[in-house]
Design brief:
single chain, 245 residues, alpha/beta, Rossmann fold, 7-stranded parallel β-sheet, 9 helices, 7 strands, globular, binds NADPH dihydro-nicotinamide-adenine-dinucleotide phosphate
Amino acid sequence: MRLKDKVALVTGGARGIGRAIALSFAREGCDIAIGDVNPEAAKQAAGEVEALGRRALPLKIDVTSYAEVEEGINKILDKFAKVDILVNNAGITKDNIILRMSDADWDAVLAVNLKGAFNCIKAASKVMLKQRAGKIVSIASIIGLIGNAGQANYSASKAGIIALTKTAAKELASRNINVNAVAPGFIQTEMTARLPEDLKEKMRQEIALNRFGTPQDVAAACLFLASQEADYITGQTIVVDGGMV
Ligand code: NDP
């Protein structure tokens, strides 16, 4: 019970890595708000949290809208009276080489992946500052460290997450708020299921541990960073990639 009676908001928590984080936190005694752009899917994931014996709150939150994020935080305060943990997980891809990338695809990915995290950190840290305690974990990507042809928007957004994490860690440290990131490698979710088989095979060969990661592998690192065990860690990015980078 490493998160007993804590309250966490997990953005994009309805499926994939976010859902795994929500369920693993719930197994450790945490109550969970699932903030997702898809309200029906959020309700379903909230039901799974409740089945584990914890309280859950499904919220329709599009992280690109500060107003929706703030409204979501207020609903969490109404129900749970605090926000101990924020996990910035919501993310999208819209891949293309730079020459063919539209302004709209550049803007959309930056808006969800980077501005979305900024919006959530801004709204949640207002509460955490008053509490004088909090943990913020954002999901970056190894692509934010090494780049990837065809992912200019995504790589820039994820590198931005790593820098945002360092700055927020410095701004919030005096109030006992830890801010860290997790940079996954290739994780099996719907986001990666769409990739062509030959590309996936090529990537697998580059992974030292010779397997793709699972959402659970990422959730384990998030759980550590959200727990008391990581009280003296801030501004860091933990790579969870099976030795790929
Ligand atoms: P999925 O696409 O499986 O899930 C993403 C979730 O985020 C979905 O529930 C989606 O809702 C939701 N979402 C999308 N846009 C918004 C928004 N504007 N506001 C709120 N929620 C939103 O992705 P993954 O689980 O694979 O990825 C989760 C995170 O991990 C992302 O940040 C991703 O970049 C990162 N990551 C993933 C890797 C991988 O290999 N899978 C590797 C490295 C990083 P909807 O169902 O409506 O689309």
